[in-house]
Design brief:
alpha+beta; NE0471 N-terminal domain-like; 3-stranded antiparallel β-sheet; globular; binds zinc ion
C-alpha cells in the first residue's frame, strides 16, 4: 500500500438490512435497515429491478426484461439471505436467479416504495 492509498477515504459501505419481512399476501417486501430506516417495495418493482444476467445484458448493462411481461399480481415466493450481503428472491413467475445486494435493495425500495 502506498502513501496515497492511505489518504483515500474508505468507500462507504452500504447499510445492511437487519430484518426482512414479506406481507401475508406475498406482494410486498419490507426491509428494516441497520441505520434504523424502514423501506418496502412490491414484488413487481423488485422483479423489474432484477440484476441477474437474464434480465440485464452483462456487456451493455441494458435491461432486457420487458416490463409489460411482469404481471401486476406478481408475488414473492421466497426471500433467502445470501451470505451477509444480499437476498435471493424467488418470484411467483418462477424467476429465482436474482441476487439483490443491499445496495440494490436500498436503491429500489427508496425509488419505488410500496404504497402503504
Ligand atoms: Zn433476473
Amino acid at each position: 500500500m502506498s502513501f496515497w492509498d492511505k489518504l483515500k477515504p474508505a468507500a462507504p459501505t452500504p447499510p445492511a438490512a437487519i430484518g426482512t419481512d414479506v406481507t401475508s399476501d406475498g406482494k410486498v417486501l419490507r426491509l428494516h435497515w441497520e441505520d434504523g430506516k424502514r423501506t418496502a417495495s412490491t414484488a413487481r418493482s423488485l422483479r423489474l429491478a432484477c440484476p441477474c444476467a437474464a434480465c440485464v445484458d452483462e456487456w451493455t448493462n441494458q435491461r432486457t426484461l420487458d416490463s409489460a411481461s411482469v404481471a401486476e399480481t406478481l408475488t414473492l415466493l421466497e426471500v433467502a439471505p445470501v451470505g451477509n450481503y444480499a437476498l435471493r428472491i424467488t418470484f411467483s413467475d418462477q424467476h429465482a436467479t436474482g441476487i439483490y445486494p443491499w445496495r440494490v435493495l436500498r436503491e429500489v425500495t427508496e425509488r419505488a416504495p410500496a404504497p402503504s
